[in-house]
């Protein structure tokens, strides 16, 4: 079958979802993960909308991506102004992105009632904007906003808008079900009409307001669309976007289309959970293909049948998407991911040590740990179970005080006593909050012995309540992202006490940095 382009807009359209907020570092990490799996396009945002999006394109241009093209998103020029004088056009031109997606109006309702311009000006805005950016050497994708609503209301005008995009030089026209209200038959007829009106390819961009975004994306491909736009896990405003995890699974495994890199589909579960963790969102256990319950079986006839013939109750082999079968009565979760992660440690999957690691991970997961986006903590766990872990420092005790005076800002102070080699270090550090103060004190205690820690700094800090039914006594999971000049890594800590959970993640982060630097030195 044909190659279908996978266009990810998690960083732009997905970030418009309620409760979703990516830091700059989050966006860069997700970009690299998508590139690893072979996504074709990664839409990073609108460079004129905010400073973070502007900085993203500056930093993304420095990444050594192997597969993906970075895309800047923006609207057509404003009415009554030439494209080369429009601030939005200039920002897109100067974004350093090799590809630009321009969105324009297709529905005459929007042209007349929202923009309050005539149809001729709308067509000129589309063609002029695309023509100008093409003249600057950028590849242009045109997103036809509200195409299916526009086509229903005024088919002739809707088709003229996408023909204007083709005339301007767009490489592809993407048909958008912006309100998410179209049914599959609407999508099919709209795609057929667009293909007949154009000589360039078409793509599809659907929203999930009728719970049909994935089905609508698939039928668009059946009708000839060569690109699918969507987000990881379907995050996005209102009811979300087409979930590219499910779309990819269906395109590759059910329709035999060529997508991603050769083993990209096998890493869909990894990708899904990675983005959930980065976004600080709870995994959706019943999510198709990649959810923890997607291949879970509980007792009786189902388990017996699956043990004999797995396909009797499973529509695919879970390993084809990087997931795993779970027999709930014996809790076999986690094995395939753990085995994959221990490959670099050269541990035989059938060894007693592997069994020991699996048991330890299951024990820690029952406590609330998650290692999907905290691989540095997992690497340290493997070392501890293998008996190769030697601590670079030992905590004797710590204390954190937060004081306020009148209307002044709170002052936080952390006191730490550590054993470093044969010496005791007793230091005090101040910070903007408890974690910052602990980090300051920890560095102060260790820098003399380990000066390489000077290049390390904390990038992000996330907290999630695990057992919310316990109220203020609930256990919390803290994930800390750290980086130096070479790498970004994540660590995790769990406790009923948020300060202790933070300490555990912070200590792992420092430990990992020291271990990795020592190993790199030995390798050289």
Secondary structure layout plus pairing:
Blueprint: E1 5-8, H1 24-37, E2 41-45, H2 51-60, E3 69-75, H3 87-93, E4 99-105, H4 108-115, H5 119-135, E5 139-145, H6 147-153, H7 155-168, E6 172-177, H8 184-197, E7 202-206, H9 213-222, E8 227-230, H10 244-253, H11 268-278, E9 296-297, H12 300-308, E10 326-327, H13 335-341, H14 352-367, H15 375-386, E11 394-403, E12 411-420, E13 423-431, H16 434-446, E14 457-465, E15 476-483, E16 488-495, H17 498-523
Parallel strand pairs: 1-2, 1-8, 2-3, 3-4, 4-5, 5-6, 6-7, 7-8, 9-10
Antiparallel strand pairs: 11-12, 12-13, 14-15, 15-16
Describe the structure.
The structure is a single chain. The model is unreliable at 299-304 and 328-334 (pLDDT under 50). The strands form four sheets. The chain has an eight-stranded parallel β-barrel with strand order 1-2-3-4-5-6-7-8, surrounded by ten helices. The longest helix has 26 residues, at 498-523. α1 packs across α2, α6 (147-153) packs across α7 and α8 (184-197) runs parallel beside α9. α1 (24-37) links the parallel β1 and β2 (41-45). The protein has 524 residues and is of the alpha/beta class. The chain has helices spanning 24-37, 51-60, 87-93, 108-115, 119-135, 147-153, 155-168, 184-197, 213-222, 244-253, 268-278, 300-308, 335-341, 352-367, 375-386, 434-446, 498-523, and strands at residues 5-8, 41-45, 69-75, 99-105, 139-145, 172-177, 202-206, 227-230, 296-297, 326-327, 394-403, 411-420, 423-431, 457-465, 476-483, 488-495. The protein has 17 helices and 16 strands.
